[in-house]
Amino acid sequence: MKVKEPPSAPICTLSAHPTHVGNNGSSTLTWTTANATSVSLDHGIGSVALSGSHTVTNITSARTYTLTVHGPGGTVNCHTTITVAAAPPACTLAAQPASLPPGGSSTLTWSSSNAISAFLSGVGQVGLHGSRNVQPHTATTYVLTVYDSHGRSAQCQATVHTQFVPPHVTLTQIPYTGIDGGMGGAAYTLTLTSILAASLYLLLHFARSYGMSIAELPRVIYASSSAFARLRRKSGGVVHAANTKQTCAPPQGITDRLVFVRSESGAAPRIILERG
Questions:
Q1: Which of 176, 144, 181 is nearest to 159 (CA)?
Q2: What band does 205 get if pLDDT is binned at 50, 70 and 90?
Q3: In sequence order, which residues have a C-beta less than 8 Å from that of residue 259 and are 6 or more positions away?
Q4: Which pLDDT does position 164 carry in this prediction?
Q5: Which uninterrupted H or E stretch holds 199?
Q6: Rounded to 5 degrees, what are φ and ψ at 235?
Q7: Membrane-crossing residues (predicted)?
Q8: Per residue in 208-221, pLDDT tens?
């Protein structure tokens, strides 16, 4: 009597290439079988050929694929795992408003992903999401740095500009005295008024001393020949009269004359008052 041997059990192999992918990456599954009558893959792939390959895409997390093989001798499973590299950290940072008048403030708003810590320049450690008011005096660029669990980092930045206002000076004194405050202006005005009053007093005093009214004040004349001769004797002969012709009749009594003496040999010109 001949004994019938049981059918051989099915066998299979399953591999993935590559086995490590980036976020949303893809990999190709390849398999072989023996003693099989049907083969299927999980994760929604379904029935496949007894031997072949299949590409999977959009892998966002580690995933293990199982190949199930059926045959006369039974059922076997083969497995392969695809791992996914963690996505790098990312961030956004915005300033509102981005341009400020002097003394104004701006709000920084930020967010991050795939990060475990965040640092903002000029502030220090901050939350992974948040906002903060800032008041820069000059144009300032703020930088947000985020880190993930693998030590990888990412940066984002936002600049806040400040509007330039040119310097200006307001004069509150007319005329301007260079002395700040109302007291300075009052002192300036009082001094100027005193000088004018003193000048007018002296003018009237001397006019009365000579018995003249304002209309009779001496007029400027050029030196006569006799006056010029006297001036030459007094000055050592180094002066010349601009004109020796007398231009008006001398007044009665005491008279005063203004004599214009021209320069000679580098000497400065002079005006001489002569009383006769």
A1: 144
A2: low
A3: 222, 223, 227, 228, 231, 241, 271, 272, 273, 274
A4: 75
A5: helix 182-209
A6: -100, 5
A7: 185-204
A8: 555 554 445 444 44
| Domains by residue range for the chain, with CATH | 11-84 (2.60.40.10), 90-162 (2.60.40.10)
Residue 35 to residue 12: CA distance in whole angstroms: 9
Q: What is the pLDDT of residue 206?
A: 67
- Confidence label for 94 from pLDDT (cuts 50, 70 and 90): very high
Q: How confident is the model at residue 203 (pLDDT cuts 50, 70, 90)?
A: confident
Look up tokens 């005295």; give the residue: 177
- The Cα 251–Cα 254 span in angstroms is 7
CA angle centred on 237, ends 231 and 240, rounded to 5°: 65
**Is the link from the previous residue into 97 a cis peptide, with omega within 30 of 0?**
yes
Structure tokens at 91: 């961030």
Tell me how far apart the alpha carbons of residues 136 and 74 are, in angstroms, rounded to a whole number. 76
CA distances from 25 to 87, 125, 257 (A): 11, 33, 114
Please, which pLDDT band fits residue 168 given cuts at 50, 70 and 90? Answer: low
* C-alpha–C-alpha distance, residues 230 and 226, integer Å: 6
